[in-house]
Specification:
Elements (H helix, E strand, L loop, with lengths): L1 H5 L8 E2 L8 E8 L2 E8 L5 H17 L3 E7 L6 H5 L2 H14 L4 E10 H6 L9 E4 L4 E3 L3 H18 L6 H18 L2 H5 L13 H17 L13
Parallel strand pairs: 3-4, 4-5, 5-6, 5-7
Antiparallel strand pairs: 1-2, 2-3
Length: about 240
């Protein structure tokens, strides 16, 4: 992700935030076309330290009025006994509430994986970013096809043993293959954008230009004073 950032921001200058803490979650300050931004990116799953760091970073961006760019590339939140013991539920909740309540503009680029709750925590469509675009390489799903197939196989094996019967392995493998094929098809960037889950697919080489256009649009909007109507429309 640092290599991506170096090719997008002004002068490849990136001031990293807590570089040695929660290293799989990347946070820092940069600028695009003179517009100051905060960046949150992923180099893997979001662990407790990474979630804690990102939540803190979002608070600081809100205090300084700095727009935040989310660069999604995550398999989701870390799972397992160690993750639970480290407080992943608590720290992950802090990150999600920080994203939800952020008072600055949010822009999201879905680059690689956007799996599970990580897609939400990294300001997915449900968290109403000002703009959200995808690279053709993006994969958006609850989990990967292989993981989903493995979970269903384990469930089927346990169910058969609970009934004191031998698992039907050929049938289970056929079902697993169908699940993998379904996930592989329905997690593609084209499948997602066809359902308006993003604002469009962009050429990765246009990422800087797209972000700059979005930042300029946001800045122009912030300069305008709106006069919304508070009464119903009487024309038919």
């Amino acid at each position: 992700m640092r290599q991506v950032i170096a090719r997008v921001v002004d002068g490849s200058q990136f001031l990293e935030f807590k570089a040695g803490f929660g290293v799989a979650t990347l946070c820092g300050h940069a600028s695009i076309g003179g517009h100051e931004i905060g960046i949150i990116g992923n180099n893997g799953p979001i662990d407790s330290a990474g979630a804690n760091k990102a939540a803190h970073f979002i608070l600081s961006c809100c205090q300084s009025g700095t727009p935040i760019v989310f660069l999604q590339n995550t398999t989701g939140f870390m799972v397992g006994t160690d993750a639970e013991a480290s407080g992943i539920v608590k720290h992950g909740s802090k990150l999600i509430q920080a994203v939800t309540n952020a008072t600055v503009p949010k822009l999201t680029i879905q680059m690689g994986g956007a799996f599970g709750a990580g897609a939400y925590a990294m300001c997915g469509r449900a968290f109403d970013p000002s703009f959200i675009f995808s690279w053709p390489t993006n994969r958006l799903a609850v989990m990967g096809g292989e993981q989903a197939a493995k979970v269903m196989t384990i469930v089927a094996e346990d169910s058969a043993r609970a009934r004191n019967t031998e698992p039907d392995y050929p049938k289970m493998e056929a079902r697993a293959s169908a699940i993998r094929a379904s996930y592989d098809h329905e997690s593609t960037a084209l499948f997602a954008t066809a359902r308006l889950w993003d604002d469009g697919i962009i050429d990765p080489r246009d990422t800087r230009a797209v972000l700059l256009h979005c930042l300029e649009t946001i800045a122009l909007g912030q300069e305008r004073t709106l006069n919304p109507s508070t009464f119903g429309t009487a024309r038919y």
